[in-house]
Design a protein that fits this description.
alpha/beta, TIM Barrel, two-stranded antiparallel ribbon, globular, binds nicotinamide-adenine-dinucleotide
């Protein structure tokens, strides 16, 4: 069994979060335990699941003998609200087979429900009771973040957002930096749609790496937490073989220019109706 040897990010509550983890959205539940075990054996330090992914049991089975693996799960939108969130957390940790998780996130602000403030208050209680190590959010915009901070005084440790070279989220990242919020990139590979980019291809050839590895190294060198998803052994290995090279300032500047105003691939959290 390998131990995680990559870098970590110190969250504002003092916890250390591995910068590289495995995402398991769309990993079939019956395959999840095997995929996560394989990734942990390769040295992945963290796993990102959610109640809506339907595979918390598989994640829990894979990490049962690995308390060192950093586990994140998320509160689904339909479970928002103070009491509902507390109940949903109990159900998640029962499925994970743990007493606690390292990080619990509100999955989406779901503004049409207008329940993200009481949901955040429930997460604060879970943190105070020691039932989760760290609390954060996902898909929150500046206004959502400002509102939960204003109404509770508690700053999320992490905001997990869509982020990749074609959608770099500079404005939101500047807000995070000003408030000590760590940025975690979902769809860090743009769901596999970025690899035709000639800039990435040229940098990859220079380092003897693949375009996927260049993109993931860009996240790491940008101070982002990154959770690429794969179920294939060779890609799990490729996506974790990132720590024997780094991008120089010129390469980082070239990738900065790939950013697109309309580069979003997933739903817009401000208008998503779920
Ligand atoms: P991703 O960017 O990680 O892309 C995954 C896809 O890219 C794979 O299905 C595969 O088709 C391809 N791929 C992976 N490795 C590759 C490689 N080395 N070479 C070529 N192709 C490769 O996309 P994702 O799954 O959307 O995001 C990763 C994780 O982020 C998810 O599993 C989940 O944990 C999290 N996520 C969170 C939210 C949220 O709302 N909080 C939304 C989406 C994803």
């Amino acid at each position: 069994m390998a131990d995680y040897k990559g870098p970590t990010i110190r969250l504002h509550d003092g916890a250390d979060m591995p910068q590289l983890g495995l995402g398991v959205w769309q990993t079939p539940s019956e395959e999840t335990a095997e995929v996560v075990r394989t990734a942990i054996d390769m040295g992945y330090g963290a796993v990102d699941t959610a109640s809506i992914y339907g595979n918390e049991e598989g994640v829990g089975a894979a990490v049962a003998d690995r308390p060192d693996i950093f586990v994140t799960t998320k509160l689904w939108n339909a479970d928002q609200g103070y009491d509902a969130a507390l109940r949903a957390f109990d159900a998640s940790i029962a499925r994970l087979g743990r007493d606690t998780v390292d990080l619990y996130l509100i999955h989406w602000p779901s503004p049409h429900r207008d329940l993200y403030v009481p949901s955040w208050k429930a997460l604060i209680r879970l943190k105070q009771e020691g039932r989760v190590r760290s609390i954060g959010v996902s898909n929150f915009g500046v206004d959502h973040l400002q509102r939960i901070i204003d109404e509770t005084g508690e700053v999320p440790t992490v905001n997990q957002i869509e982020l990749h070279p074609r959608f770099q989220q500079r404005e939101l990242r500047a807000f995070h930096a000003a408030h000590g919020i760590a940025t975690e990139s979902w769809s860090p590979l743009g769901k596999g749609t970025l690899f035709d980019d000639p800039v990435l291809g040229a940098i990859a050839r220079r380092h003897g790496k693949t375009s996927a590895q260049i993109v993931l190294r860009w996240h790491i060198d940008s101070g982002l937490i990154v959770i690429p998803k794969s179920t294939r052994v060779e890609r799990l290995h490729e996506n974790s073989d990132l720590f024997d090279f780094a991008l120089d300032a010129g390469e980082m500047a070239q990738i900065a220019r790939i950013d697109l105003i309309d580069g979003r691939g997933g739903p817009d959290p401000l208008s998503a109706g779920f």
